Amino acid sequence: MSASIHIPKSGKTEPVGYLTSRLLIATPLINSPAFARTVILMCAHDKNGAMGIIINNIIENISYTDLFEQLEIAPQDSVNQLPVHYGGPVEINRGFVIYHLGEAPPHPDTLITVNNIAISSSIHVLRDIAAGKGPKERILALGYAGWAAGQLETEMEANSWISVPATRELIFDTDNNLKWSKAANQHGIDISKLTSNVGHA
Questions:
Q1: Residues 31-48: tens digit of each pLDDT
Q2: For a Cys staple, 64 with which of 7, 32, 82, 157, CB 3.0–4.6 Å?
């Protein structure tokens, strides 16, 4: 985990800017192994570029235990195993926790998006999870997806992505294998039938 990737400070809710706080759904036009059939929660998007975290891909060869050992964190035996998600190809050693913000105040370096969905790069969140007192609804991800200035806009115009609102249910309560199709279906889109004539939700 690291705070070196800039995330707006806690208390900033529903940030304004392009596709910030929304979900990007990859259309069938994207066949890159890193992004095919992905759903991405957008952390930031403005004239300088964009950043998001993939929420539906697991890293099979890295376990929760491995990561905690690297960070010298000893989880309680009662703490359930937490899958490690592939957040994107940029800085794959950087860790992020996406979680639902309950009554507890957010940790520093936390972005609070719509529906109290929080994104943090603070190691303190992981320590709380390891101690059994962290957020119950959470996703642990390594790496992120990044776009240079104007790059995402160009990809949107080329119908590579569909933008839809982010929901707590879709992020935390939906099986990873179903997120791609369900995110589109909730907005009346059968994504498996999309062609180059894709529109934006």
A1: 899 999 999 999 999 999
A2: 82
